[in-house]
Specification:
The structure is a single chain. This protein has about 260 residues and is an alpha/beta fold. The protein has one domain (about 5-245): TIM Barrel (Alpha-Beta Barrel). It is about 40% helix and about 15% strand. The chain is built from 9 helices and 8 strands. It has helices spanning about 5-15, 30-40, 60-70, 105-120, 140-145, 155-170, 190-195, 210-220, 235-245; strands at about 20-25, 50, 75-80, 95-100, 125-135, 175, 200-205, 225. The longest helix is centred in the middle third of the chain and has 18 residues, at about 105-120. It is globular. About 50% of the residues are buried. Bound molecules: SN-glycerol-1-phosphate (1GP). SN-glycerol-1-phosphate binds near residues 24 and 229. SN-glycerol-1-phosphate binds near residues 24, 206, 226 and 230.
Amino acid sequence: MQSSAVYDDLIRTRDNLGAGFLLLIDPDKNPVSDFLPMVEAARDCGVDAILVGTSFTLYSDFGRAVKEIKSVSTVPVIIFPGSFAQITPDADAILFTSLISGRNPSYLIEEQVKGAPFVKKFGLEPIPTGYMLIESGPLTSVQYLSNSMPIPRSKHDIACAHALAAQYLGMRLVYLEAGSGAAKPVPVEMVRAVSSYVNTPVVVGGGLCTPEDCAARIEAGASFVVIGNHLEGDGSFGQLRELTAATHTKDSIRI
Ligand code: 1GP
């Protein structure tokens, strides 16, 4: 039977702390060694899991990066793949995403078919995730590379319909993605509309920078926020603590 230990742990965290904070590491942006102190301190800083992924593996040895991160991580390490080539054995789980807002078969099903046997072979826990790109200002890497159109920012009904389809297809997370470094994060009102429309836990990422950005999306119903770009190579633990504190809206003890 397929384990769902990492997913169950994320949901327990969401229930206990009000929401979860996921730190995204893109090994293509900076050498992994730059991130390792933050990875080691992750649990202490309030990070609930680490995502590792990139839209475009240009420079990094992705498998090695995951291995190094996992070797020092104090929280679960989850692959957030840009392609099936980023499926590597040393993580705890993988967001098994389908880019459901797009109509490009490569990211709807082809990459998944190529990757599934590796997920099984490596014993990774797959977390089925409906991945939705949301219009966010200038074109982002993920929009360009996936060759897919984002959902317009004001079209909450379209976002809700996609999220509900993800729920009915059995996906266990809905990820509203503005794209890494997005000029405009996913609108709070879209997060509110989607979160109240579906039962599937909602993840929000892309362009979030401040504790207020995180708190507003959690208040609107998101279960998890993701931040990468803003913390990359920065090493600012104080800032990380502020972001996680704003995300964990319930004052309870981590289990
Ligand atoms: C990107 O949602 C993530 O896939 C995080 O985005 O790098 O802008 O924080 P940022």
